[in-house]
Design goal:
Elements: H1 2-10, H2 18-23, H3 28-81, H4 85-100, E1 104-111, E2 114-122, H5 129-136, H6 142-148, E3 154-156, H7 159-162, E4 176-184, E5 187-196, H8 198-201, H9 204-243, E6 247-252, E7 257-260, H10 262-268, H11 272-275, H12 289-300, E8 305-313, E9 319-330, E10 336-345, H13 347-398, H14 406-431, E11 440-443, H15 444-458, E12 463-468, E13 475-478, H16 480-497, E14 502-513, H17 515-520, E15 527-536, H18 543-548, H19 566-576, E16 580-585, E17 591-598, E18 622-626, H20 630-642, E19 646-650, H21 653-662, E20 669-673, H22 681-691, E21 696-701, E22 709-710, E23 713-714, E24 720-722
Parallel strand pairs: 12-14, 18-19, 18-20, 20-21, 21-24
Antiparallel strand pairs: 1-2, 1-5, 3-4, 4-5, 6-7, 6-10, 8-9, 9-10, 11-13, 14-15, 15-17, 16-17, 22-23
């Protein structure tokens, strides 16, 4: 209806104008109705005008909101593509002025509490210079001070009044000012100020959208700075990775290798190009796979695994002991990105630990040997004196009883038991390296050839004994009787390890060990050696047994079948000869003893055939015996007198000198104990030789003494008889 009235009265058709009708005789009623219609039309026009004005206002608001959203979009696009903070802020100022309709925009960053150049601004037409001078001087305008100290948008409704004295106040004429802090995650970068229409200055929506723009700019500045720091750290990290000898490997969360530094290339024995993209478990030994899987799981749960010991498998198949530290690699938001691994080669440390253990074992063995040596030496002197009396008197008694007499068998048992006891004492002294020896240059091959017959008698007929001598001369410097002891003990042990039919093999060879080989095998010694090996295919030994086989009195034989001193004796002999011994054995696979004796350059002494000779009788020659043990002194005197010698017996060196003063004839032989209370036997012999230059000397003792031997080796020209001795 309103639309019809408007068209009729305001836009009449031709010939129907309102005013023509009024002027050409309309009735009073008609005039009234037209007046009413005219009032209605005028009211409607006012309403329509106001509605149109509101529509325009709403359209303007909508356009401004769209410009704000466009500004946010443009700033966000700028943030994505622009990584230069200076370019970012300069372009952001221009975008806000162009799209948002702000009169001017300026941004100032802060550094160490002061404004930092350059200053970013637009819309001032060259009028920003005075403000720039103040900022360089460190002066902050009131709007900046308010913005930096508040979380809210700061509003300046009347800039000329509120900012009196500010060089930018005039540029805000007719508008209002807004200032707000540029901040992200507690870090204040600076502030932004701008001018806009007063009607928008207090719009909550304007403030919200403006703070969103400033928040995006702050985040962009933070992201650029963080990226720069990451790049700096990455550059330093890359430089460190390239120069460090420590192996560093980085993997993604699936275990695929992404970083492989030169240290890793050296340790893993492959290049980064070869392994990048492959799985880290390719370098994990199968028996460590479960352990590594557990460690990776713990790291994924944000737990750092530090310095755990494991092994890695190199590209060429070597197992290397390593110490590993694992940590989670995260991005700036703390989200897991991968796993970092640091590998430290433990080979040298393990070798050092093994060397320390070896040295500690050697120290323990040396201390044990010293203790056993002191015990053996202390006991042997008295014990061998007692055994000398037992053996000597038993032999004298046997000479007085016919073989058919029952007493003869009893005396023989006593003699056998005493000799077994004497043998144990000798073995103890050998283990402690206190057995007196007389080394000579021996050809090992010749000696073995001569011993084969005796060794075959030791083992049963079911066991085949074979000798495989190495080429050339195998010369060593050692006591021949000790070589016999070594072979006897090893062949007897091999025999006992074989159940039924079996083989025992003896080999000799020339070997040389250099420093490099010995570095990888700490139990070996550099130099040239003659190797003597004794192998069997018997039951073998486990690792627990191998650890203890050279311990004195250690045995795995049944009670009564062994003393536990056989291998201890072998070990003592080898050490006393400056050699070393190595054993390989596994249960069910037999045992091999390899003895390495220093190669000697001299010519071997000829082997003399042993002759069984009758005990010679004397022709009245005079022998002086000096022995502090009365029972041995008496026994020795009795034996020698029965053999036809004249005997002068003295219990001390002092008594011996008295007897010589009383004796008017010559003395052909001095038999003296080495260790005596007043003076030792060597000093006594030297003093008597001054009086009797042609005097011959025979030393006797229950164990070696430094007076006549150096480290158990008899001094040159010394004649010695070991107690206990027999007739």
């Amino acid at each position: 209806m309103l639309d019809i009235l408007v068209r009729y009265f305001v836009f009449p058709q031709e010939g129907q104008t309102f005013w023509n009708i009024v002027l050409h005789g309309a009735s009073a009623h008609g005039m009234f109705m037209r007046t009413v219609y005219l009032a209605v039309v005028m009211f409607a026009g006012v309403v329509l005008a106001r509605m149109n004005l509101r529509r325009v206002e709403l359209q303007n608001l909508l356009d401004r909101r769209n410009r704000i959203l466009a500004a946010i979009r443009n700033v966000n696009q700028l943030i994505v593509r622009e990584k230069n903070p200076l370019q970012l802020l300069d372009k952001a100022c221009r975008l806000l002025a162009e799209n948002q309709g702000y009169y001017n925009v300026w941004i100032v960053l802060m550094k160490n509490g002061r404004p930092s150049e350059p200053f970013f601004h637009t819309g001032f037409n060259g009028g920003f210079t005075p403000m720039a001078e103040r900022l360089r001087a460190g002066e902050l305008p009131s709007c900046a001070q308010a913005a930096l100290s508040s979380d809210d948008v700061q509003i300046i409704d009347h800039p000329p009044v509120q900012c009196a004295g500010c060089p930018l106040a005039s540029s805000y004429a007719g508008g209002a000012g807004l200032s707000l802090r540029i901040e992200h995650d507690g870090h204040v970068f600076g502030w932004m100020s701008l001018s806009c229409l007063k009607k928008f200055a207090r719009s909550a929506e304007e403030h919200s959208l403006l703070m969103e723009v400033v928040g995006d700019i702050a985040f962009a500045l933070w992201a650029i700075e963080a990226e720069k720091q990451r790049e700096t750290v990455a550059d330093k990290y890359a430089a460190v990775l390239a120069t460090t000898t420590t192996a560093v490997v980085a993997c993604d969360l699936n275990g695929r290798i992404t970083v492989f530094n030169p240290g890793a290339e050296k340790l893993f024995r492959c290049s980064a190009d070869e392994v990048t993209g492959s799985h880290i478990t390719n370098f994990c030994p199968e028996d460590h796979m479960e352990e590594q899987t557990e460690m990776m799981r713990r790291v994924r749960e944000k737990e750092t695994v530090a310095d755990y010991e494991s092994e890695l498998l190199t590209a060429d198949g070597r197992r290397v002991p390593v110490e590993i530290t694992l940590s989670l690699n995260t991005d700036a938001q703390g989200r897991p990105q991968g796993i970092n691994a640091i590998f430290r080669d433990n080979t040298e440390r393990k070798q050092a630990e093994a060397e320390r253990e070896k040295l500690q074992f050697q120290l323990t063995q040396a201390q044990k040997m010293e203790s056993v040596g002191r015990l053996a030496g202390g006991v042997a002197h008295d014990y061998n004196n007692i055994l000398s009396v037992i053996i000597g008197n038993a032999e004298l008694a046997l000479g007085k009883v016919s073989p058919g007499d029952s007493l003869h068998a009893d005396l023989k048992e006593i003699l056998d038991a005493a000799e077994r006891s004497a043998n144990i004492t000798r073995q103890l002294l050998t283990f402690a390296r206190k057995q007196t020896i007389q080394p000579d240059v021996l050809d090992l091959n010749e000696r073995l050839e001569g011993m084969l017959k005796m060794l075959r008698r030791l083992i049963c007929e079911d066991i085949n004994l074979s000798l495989h001598p190495g080429p050339g001369r195998m010369t060593v410097f050692m006591d021949p009787t000790q070589l016999d002891q070594i072979l006897t003990n090893l062949c007897v042990n091999a025999r006992d390890a074989i159940d039924g039919v079996g083989n025992v093999t003896i080999k000799t060879d020339h070997v040389r060990f250099d420093e490099k080989y010995c570095a990888d095998n700490p139990e070996f010694i550099p130099g040239e050696f003659i190797m003597l090996s004794v192998s069997d295919n018997g039951c073998g030994m486990d690792s627990d047994t191998l650890v203890n086989i050279f311990e004195p009195f250690f045995t795995i034989k049944s009670v009564g079948e062994g003393t536990g001193l056989g291998l201890a004796t072998v070990h003592g002999i080898v050490k006393q000869s400056n050699g070393f011994i190595n054993v390989d054995s596994e249960p069910g696979r037999g045992t091999t003893f390899r003895i390495y004796l220093p190669r000697h350059a001299g010519e071997a002494s000829p082997i003399e055939a042993q002759k069984v000779a009758e005990t010679p009788t004397g022709l009245g020659e005079t022998i002086l015996i000096v022995e502090d043990e009365a029972s041995i002194l008496k026994l020795t005197q009795t034996i020698l007198e029965k053999l036809g010698y004249t005997v002068l017996a003295a219990s001390t060196p002092g008594r011996a000198k008295v007897l010589l003063e009383e004796h008017t004839g010559h003395i052909q032989l001095l038999i003296t104990d080495v260790v005596m209370p007043e003076t030792n036997g060597r000093d006594l012999a030297e003093s008597l030789k001054a009086q009797y230059p042609m005097l011959k000397v025979l030393f006797m003792s229950g164990y070696t003494a430094s007076a006549i031997a150096h480290r158990g080796v008899l001094n040159s020209g010394v004649n010695f008889i070991q107690k206990p001795f027999s007739i």
